[in-house]
Amino acid sequence: MVTTYNNFWKLWSRALIVSAIMYGSFLVLCFLDTLIKNYRKRGGYWSINSVEKKQKVRTLAQSLLDDVRLCSLSITSLLFCLTMGALRRTFTNAAAFDIPQMWWHSLASVIDITFIILFNKFVARRSLKDLGYPAFNTRSGWIPNPKKNLMRLAYVLCICAGTHFITPLFYKIFGCFQKIQVFDYSKSSVYQKNGSAGVFYFFFVQLVCFYINGVDEESHWRGFTKSIYGEEDRKSPIVVYIISGSVYAGVHALNNGSNDIGVYLLVLFNIISEGALWYGLYSTTHDLVGNWYQHDIDDLFSIWFGATSLAGYALPAGQIAPFYIKCKNKWISGGAFGPGGSIIYIFQNLWTLSVILVLRYIIKHYNTPLSPQENKKFETDQVFEEDFMSSGTFESTSTD
C-alpha cells in the first residue's frame, strides 16, 4: 500500500510541476498577446484625457483577468487528465497493454470525456457545439453522412499513409530492415488461450481503445482549446496554436522518458509541433469528428507499422505490432522515449503540414456556394438546431 501511494505521489507531483510550468508560460503568452492587441486597438495606453486613460486601464485590467481565467481553465483540464493517467499507471500495468489494460485505458478516456463535457458546460460556460461536437440533429449531426465521411477518410488516410511511409523509408536508409523480426501470433498467450478468435478480439479491443482515446484527446486539446481561446478571436491564432501543442505535449509528460537531454528536447519539439498541426487541421476543417478519425487512424498506423515496431519503445515489442525492428541509432529509434524522440517525426510533421496547407487551399478556393435548395435546407437545419439548443440542456451561455 505504501509503495502504491509513493508511486502515485511521484507521478502526481510530476503532473503538478508540469502544470505549474505550463500555467506560467501560458499566462506570459496571453498577457503579451493582450498587451499588443490593446496597444494596437486603443492607440497606446496613455492619453491626454484622464477619463480616456482610466477607461483604457480598466479595459486592459479586465482583459488580463480574463487571460488568468482562460489559462486556469486550460490547466485544470490538463491536470485532471494527468491525475487520471497517474491513477491508471499506479493501479494497472501500463506497460503490459494487454486486453484488461486496454479496457482500463478506455474507461479512463470515458471519464476524461465526461469531465470535459461537464467542465465545458458548467464552468467554462460553453456549449457542446463550441466544444466541436456535432449538434444533436438527426438530419445532419450524429447520423453518418457517407459523402462527408469519405472526405474525412480521404485527407486522414493521405496524412497517415504519407507519414508512415516515411518511417520504413528511414529504416531502409539506415539498414534497419536487416534486423526485422516478424511476430508469430500462434505463440502468443492470447492465441494459446482463445485461438484465432482471441487474436481478432485483441485487435477489436485495440480499435475501441484507440478510438475512444482519440475522442478524449481531441476533445481536450483541440475542441476545448478552441472553445475557450479561439472563439471570437479571444487570442491571436499563433498563441492558440502554441497552447494546443503545449498541452498536448504536457499530457504525455508521464510517459517513459530519456536521460539524454538531446532526445528529450527533440521529443518536446516533435510533440508540440504535432499538437499544433492537429489544431491546424481542426481550424482548417472546423470538423472535430475528422480529428477523431485522424487521431485514431494515426495511433493504429503507429502501433501496427511504426511506434511499437521499434524495440526501444516502452510497450513490449511484438505483442501489439505484427513485427518489430531493432535499430541501435537513437536518433532513428528515439531511444527510451520511442519514435517521439526520432528525427523521423520531423519529416512526418512536415508531410502533415503540407497536406493541411493543400486542404486549406482547396477549401478556400473550391468551396462553392450552396445552391438555393441546399441553402434552404441549411437554414432549416440551423433553425432546428437553434430551437433545440435554446430548449435548455445544451444552450450556450457565453456572453463574449
From TrEMBL:
One of its GO terms (biological process) is proteolysis. GO terms for molecular function: peptidase activity. Coiled coil: none annotated. Keywords: Hydrolase, Membrane, Protease, Transmembrane, Transmembrane helix. The keyword Cell wall biogenesis/degradation does not apply. The chain crosses the membrane at residues 12-32, 68-87, 102-119, 153-174, 194-215, 236-255, 261-282, 303-325, 345-363. The keyword Repeat does not apply. Signal peptide: none annotated. This is Membrane-associated protease-related. It comes from Anaeramoeba flamelloides.
